[in-house]
Amino acid sequence: MKWPGKAEYPVRETYPPDHIREYTEKSLRFLDMPAIDLQQFHVWSDAWADDDGWQRAVDDLKREGLVRAVGISVNRWEASNVLRALKTGLIDSVQVVYNIFDQAPEDELLPYCQAHGIAVIARVPFDEGSLTGTLTPDTRWPDGDWRNIYFNREHLTATLARVDRLSPLVPEGMDLPELALRFILEHPAVSTTIPGMRRPAHVERNLAASDGVRLPPRLGDRPQDPPLGPDPERHALACYNGCFPERVRSVL
C-alpha cells in the first residue's frame, strides 16, 4: 500500500477492498460495537471514483449493517474533487474545509450536497486559528507544527489584514470565533462543523453557537475595498447586506 494516497496511484494501492474490510472489522473490535455510524475515506481522489473495488466493499459493509454511513474527507483546496464519487450514490457525507476565508465549497459542492441529501461536515472553521482573533505578526508554533508552513510570513501578513477587515462586521455582543461558527452553520447545506477544542469552556462556547439564532443584518457589499492581490487558496471575506442571509463575496 501507498500512503498517503495520490491521484496518480491506483486506488488498489491506497484503498484495496480487502483493506477496507479488514480495518473496518478491526475498528469494530476495538470499539466493541456492532456498527460504525460514519466511516470516512481520507486523501481522496476522484480519479478513483469509478473503481468497482471500493464501491463493492462499501456496499457490502452497508448491506451487512457493519457501517451505517460512509463519507469522504476532501483534500484541502480541492472542494470539487469528490463530485464523481458522490454520483455513485454510495457516499452519505462529505467533510470539507469551509470557513469565512475559504468559501470555495459554495461553488459546486454545497449545492450538490444540498440537492442530493448528502451531509456536510465543515472542518477548519477557524482557518487554523486566524478566525479566533488571537494571531499576531509574531505568532509562531513549536518546531514541526505545520502551521509554521501554512502561516508563512507572507500568508500570515495577508491573513491578519483580512481579519482586520472582518472585525468591523462582528455584531455587537458577539466575538470573531462565534461569528465564524455561525457563518458556517447558517448555510443550509451544512450539517455540522468540527472546531478544535482543548478546554471545557471552548466546548460550551462552541455549542452555544448551534442554538439556531441567525446572524443579524449587516453591512452591504464593499466593492470599493482594494484587493490584496491574487490568492490561489481562494480566500474570501464575507460581507452582509440588509437582507441577510444573502451573502455577498468580496474576494480579497
How would you briefly describe this protein structure?
The protein is about 30% helix and about 10% strand. The chain is α/β, with parallel strands linked by helices and about 250 residues long.
Which SSEs are present, and which pair or pack?
Layout: H1 17-31, E1 39-41, H2 52-63, E2 70-73, H3 83-86, E3 93-97, H4 109-116, E4 119-123, H5 147-150, H6 153-166, H7 176-185, E5 192-194, H8 200-208, E6 236-240, E7 247-251
Helix pairs in contact: 1-2
How would you characterize the overall build of this protein?
- It is built from 8 helices and 7 strands; from the N terminus they run H-E-H-E-H-E-H-E-H-H-H-E-H-E-E.
- The chain is α/β, with parallel strands linked by helices and 252 residues long.
- Helix 1 (17-31) runs parallel beside helix 2 (52-63).
- The longest helix has 15 residues, at 17-31.
- Residues 219-252 have low confidence and may be disordered.
